Amino acid sequence: MTTLDAPPPPAGASPAPAAVLIPSTMDEALRQLAADGARPLGGGVAHTLRRHDRRPAEATALVSVAALPGLADVTRHEDHLTVGAGIRLHACAAAPQLARLWPVLTEAAGSVATERIRRMVTLGGNVAARDETHDPPVALTAVGATAVLRSATGTRSLTVPELDLLRADELIECFRVPLPADRTGSAYEKFLVRGVWEYACVHVAAVVTLDAEGRADRLSLAVGSVEGGPAAIDLSGLLGAPADRGLIDAAAAQAAATTQPYDDVKGSAAYKTHMIAEFSRRALTTAVRRATGRTPGAPHTHARNPHHNPGGDR
Q1: Does 190 share its domain with 293?
Q2: Final residue of a structural domain among 33, 64, 95
Q3: Same domain assignment for residues 174 and 191
Q4: Does residue 224 lie in a domain region?
Q5: Do 136 and 220 belong together in one domain?
Q6: What's 110's domain CATH number?
Q7: Which structural domain, as residue segments, surrounds residue 56?
Q8: Structure pTM?
Q9: Rounded distance, CA 203 to CA 7, Å?
Q10: 134, part of any domain
Q11: Is residue 2 part of a domain?
Q12: Digitized pLDDT (tens) for each residue of the chain, 314 residues in all
């Protein structure tokens, strides 16, 4: 062996994919994804983590899709926005049209890890991972977005919680996001026990639309970091009530009562249940204020443990 020869892989390491394919059109990419063992390559973070953790390789070929024409665009239509699945999270967080219409989406995208990571990760890749601790799926669920899926054999749409039905030959092309009604506010709240490098202990996205009398015409609340998440909370019984503290407390109590957090190093399930109620109140309070026009686009900060703030927080 010379110094130019590759050393043998460590025992148990995943083999590298046999090929990286670079299609120039969506149709070409879909044909390549139809082959056995082919998987899409966006930012590459998920594939890198799999190899780093020495998990078995899922792909024999990676189809590079992030640079496909139009896959990273944000486009306004008559009654909805389309957000391309290839948009990087840092661009999603900085998109002025999203910030104006749906700040909950830009806040969720901007809360993921660090800027370096956000410049790599695509929105579609983050959502397709089906990880209940990820941020953007919670916000997309709250706003009622649907994912447009394409394959070599056709097109279909699924809600974000339904994406466990995503097939290996399908690519998320974009997310269809309805335009908000007048007097709509939205907000995202993320509870970090320690710092930005870890996943959320609890995270919540809220959408509120008020009628002319200040009553709740729409209430949407989605919770992450729970079993089966992102979990959409049924708040239909609260519609028509005044958007006051009583409504917010009732919605937060419903979120805590109907979700199933789990024990882990970030806290016990019982502790997380209390935090779900607390951060639901915070998200709903901000959403109501934005719906009334008092704090449009208010700056968002990531909350940390209200009981403990070690000097190592970042």
Answers
A1: yes
A2: 64
A3: no
A4: yes
A5: no
A6: 3.30.465.10
A7: 19-64
A8: 0.88
A9: 43
A10: yes
A11: no
A12: 333 444 555 565 555 556 899 999 999 999 999 999 999 999 887 777 666 566 666 788 999 998 899 999 999 999 999 999 999 999 999 999 999 999 999 999 999 999 999 999 999 999 999 999 999 999 999 999 999 999 999 999 999 999 999 999 999 999 999 999 999 999 999 999 887 667 899 999 999 999 999 999 999 999 999 999 999 999 999 999 999 999 999 999 999 999 999 999 999 999 999 999 999 999 999 999 999 985 433 334 445 454 443 333 22
